[in-house]
Structures
1.
Amino acid sequence: MLRLRPYKSCDAEKIVGWIRDETSFWKWSAGRYDRYPICAEDINAEYDKYAFSDCFFAMTAFEDDGAAGHLIMRFLDEDKKILRFGFIIVDDAKRGRGYGKNMLLLALKYAFEILMVEKVTLGVFENNEPAHRCYRSAGFHETGAVEWYRIGDEDWKCLEMEIRHPQ
Ligand SMILES: CC(C)(COP(=O)(O)OP(=O)(O)OC[C@H]1O[C@@H](n2cnc3c(N)ncnc32)[C@H](O)[C@@H]1OP(=O)(O)O)[C@@H](O)C(=O)NCCC(=O)NCCS
């Protein structure tokens, strides 16, 4: 059974171990870390920046044998009605088995029922088909907005996706 809990600094070691190559790293981080590879301390240092913020929440999905996935949630607006998911990742040994979708459904439940937001957004690179499909499967849809990122010597198209509170 997959469950969701707040992130703990001991999760970082596992998360960095799930990123196996540089291309996956850029797809996951979209340049929010400026170099590859990163270590556990980099993740904790990044999240520590928000230690006194009430707009950023890191979460970990876990089951009996430990952490299985991770994501962050941050408010985009002063009213705290729009939440953005990021750094979404599943243990690389567990991908393609429904973990990502399940984790997102738990995260959406938290967003809509506990944080009481109206809308959840995220961005996904067009070249990240597993992630794109996973987000669609969890109920997100494309807004039509796109943003371009310079990754190495390539331009990557990032698709904006969102899901609104089920009325
Ligand atoms: C993106 C990610 C979280 C998806 O998690 P996952 O556990 O592998 O996905 P799931 O098994 O829950 O699959 C959900 C849906 O996506 C589809 N999907 C998953 N992997 C796929 C693949 N490699 N190719 C095609 N479709 C795929 C599944 O078929 C499923 O669709 P369905 O519900 O219609 O049957 C995972 O691949 C990952 O950690 N990727 C590396 C980090 C990353 O790139 N994160 C994205 C940042 S934007």
2.
Amino acid sequence: MSTLTVRQYKHSDFSAVKKLFIEGCHEHASTTFYQALRLHQNWLLMILGFLLPLVTVGSILLAILDVVVVLVVLWLCGRKFFYGYATHALADDMKDIPKYYLQREGYNYWVVESDGEFVGMVAAIPSYLPGGEKNTELKRMFVDQSHRGKGIAKVLCRTVIEFARKKGCKAVILSTTTVQTSATNLYRSVGFRCTHTSYMTGFTQRLIRLQWIYFRYDVNNSK
Ligand SMILES: CC(C)(COP(=O)(O)OP(=O)(O)OC[C@H]1O[C@@H](n2cnc3c(N)ncnc32)[C@H](O)[C@@H]1OP(=O)(O)O)[C@@H](O)C(=O)NCCC(=O)NCCS
């Protein structure tokens, strides 16, 4: 039985944190592509792309090329979103983790070790609803692939919930995408409830119908 230790982030964690973050973001590109393949709108696009050159110029080569182009575009859409997300975060809050997360009230960044080895991380930032309700937002939840399915993310969720409770927050909130099914299952299993979903508005996100999903956990829950 391995020993899990959750502790605050320190400078020497950066390369491991960055690697896990990049890998964790990039792995969703392929899931997004497979989800896009299940959409009727994209099948219609491929069928039209196949039939049009066949009927108009009688070229099977052009017909196949059209389908390949649609497939490549769909692949690139998912890739663009998740690779772009990682690049943006690394230039933003993750550029200087101690400055962003460890020196400000209501912020924090934890890593989790299994027998002394870095295996996961999570972060918290303060968040206020329009009426002034004080919440904590859970961010940067990632567990190394070889250590998944052992309850590590649940421990990290509880760390953030406990932090929010100590800070006098009403709830822990977060957003993720509907393609991240392990994450959405995780949050539900811990007791978060989905408050709403919304389709992303960018052109490439619309092509693959990417959706944000928002969760909330009321910290007075006993689960
Ligand atoms: C989501 C993630 C953090 C889960 O980490 P984990 O340590 O494997 O999760 P746990 O072992 O604590 O599992 C907790 C619950 O999550 C759900 N879950 C975890 N992995 C799952 C999977 N592959 N498929 C379906 N549900 C899954 C289950 O409901 C599980 O509860 P159960 O074991 O009682 O059924 C991990 O898969 C990950 O890092 N994914 C990539 C990055 C990511 O999507 N992060 C979320 C950003 S919002």
3.
Amino acid sequence: MALTFRGGVRLAEHKNTAGCPIEVFPAPERLYLPMLQHIGAPATPLVAPGDRVLRGQRIGTADKGLGAHVHSPVSGVVEKITTMRDALGRMVETVVIRNDYKAELIPYAPARREGNPTVGELADLVRDAGITGLGGASFPTHVKIRSAEGKAERVIVNCAECEPYITANHRLMLEEPERIVRGLLLLLSAFGVEEGILAVEDNKRDAIKTLTDRIRPYPALRVAPLRTKYPQGDERQLVYALLKKEIPAGKLPADLGCVIFNAETCAAIASAVERGAPLLERVVTVDGDCIVSPKNLLVPLGTPFSDLIDFCGLLPGKKIGKVISGGPMMGSAQFDLMAPVVKGTSALLVFAESRPEKAPLLPRCIRCGRCVAHCPMHLMPLYIARYAGAKDWENAGRYGAMSCVECGSCAYLCPGELPLVQYIRMAKTKIGEENRRKEAEAARRLAEAKGAGEAGNNKEEKEAVPS
Ligand code: SF4
Ligand code: SF4
């Protein structure tokens, strides 16, 4: 029986591109490479305007802490370094490269070593390749690997792909299952664990079969079919579906022995270890009711969204109403189609001018309880939203605002069409700011107390010195 979690919603799937093989998108004339494509600190540019760069060359470095290197997917010349709006609406330092169409490759090779890499070696190789989580969150993968050392009991490959429309991972499972499996085997070997799970929603029967065939020689691996339900790809729901254990608030999957990687991330890890290959491109689903030919494309990072739309074609007579980077539930609406594809871009959805803004069926919360019944985090979204609306951040926090994974299930189901997620996000931002302020204040007080203590000691020491 397919595994599942409590709560969540069944959504219309719209997996229109499930039968569309991955096509290579031709690299555009100009690529826009933001130095921040991940969670953490931005990378620092290593190039200057006028520099010639090769395909695969590192152009942005993030050597310390939470960050990821950035590489050029083409050979060409750095035209400028500027500040541009990214798909999340942030202004980010961006290296603009003019493609010379020579695809001259910087020579890269696998690191010489005996056998499979250790955790430290794997993390270094993954960091050098600039890999981040490719499921959308873009957490630097080398940091995840290092932080799971000594905690991992199993490695889970998240192949759920539960958002409507997106089929990028699905196609990768069908077309490159070996690379995903090799990445998983490298992770198992590095962590020294013997349980590898490929978790796939049961609307991808062909992928379940393909992966099951590929893992036959490896008894440590298994494919776990999951019931198709949103948000099955959320790490907490994934762990619950597989282990029937809840990750406590404030804890991570690794605290329950689980390290989770997206399917395309696993494939990228295999390429980094086996070929020393940096992350230069990713699979993007392009779909929506404005698009002539919905496709799955292997797209160089830094390609503007407008180029993808031109490539797939706009239906004549349709006026674009909304463009979403990512899925319709958790993706972000775009203001500017010059925003580029980055490591976390799994899809680009182009919808026609939306239905005329209709008035909510009911003007306010009628306490139907649907948001509570379906929240996968077992929260009471109506109360969090109500307190956030009243700027009562303390009570919003008490009702668990910080545990919200922003899946949008509550807002999707709300008959009052209340903007529950927007309210909850606002509460999370304010509570986060308040927590940081308190931490800074506590650190300042501690430093002052230490300073006073040291001054007191010095005074006592001076007084104790005989004249
Ligand atoms: S789903 Fe909407 S109307 Fe129903 S209880 Fe929740 S907030 Fe209120
Ligand atoms: S409160 Fe958060 S986690 Fe719960 S359904 Fe709403 S968006 Fe999802």
4.
Amino acid sequence: MSLAKRLYDLQQIDLEIQKTQEALTDISHQLGESKALLKARAGLLDEEKHLAEMEKQQRDVEWEVEDMRSNIAQLNDKLYGGKIKNPKELVSFEKELEIFKTNLRQKEDNLLDLMTEIEATQDKIKSDAERLKKLEWEWQQEQEVLVQRQAEVESRLLELSQKRQVLTSEVTPQAFELYEGVRSRKGQAVVRVEQGRCHGCHLTLSMNELQRARAGALAQCSSCGRILYLG
Ligand SMILES: [Zn+2]
């Protein structure tokens, strides 16, 4: 096997290592809390807080209604208990009672609206909690698959780095150094020769370059410096 072929194989492994590392990074980004899940949890918490506030408000309004009812009852007793004889005073009491009753009706309407809103919020919390539960379950499944995939990719990476070690030991230190040098400058170090052209820069190679490459020597393209491989 020519040195160029060995370096070409090494390059294939390096490309695969790069892809595998990218896949691993991708997986690590997907592992952990999901934004959608955090948002759903925070949303539910806000709704529950809002519900608690409304329930407290409901209790307060219920107390107020209770007070108003007892005030009205007292006024009623006074008014119809026969104790007030003065007609002027009677009229004034009647007016006061009417105002109290109007206020009570308004308060009762408020209470009804509040109770309707509470009921709607309770329904929303119920459906959002179910949605969150489903999201959490899906996320859990996804995480399990990712963890498994991560282990697979890690073991593949180990396998590749072992292969790389073997291939590296099969080339001379000078060839390896040349490969690493060109790779760091050009990205792709070894290129195929196709129809007498360097596949890296697409320029036509000289007869001398082609002959050296054919002879199995480590030949570099004179214009881009990449290592030529006649595969
Ligand atoms: Zn070239």
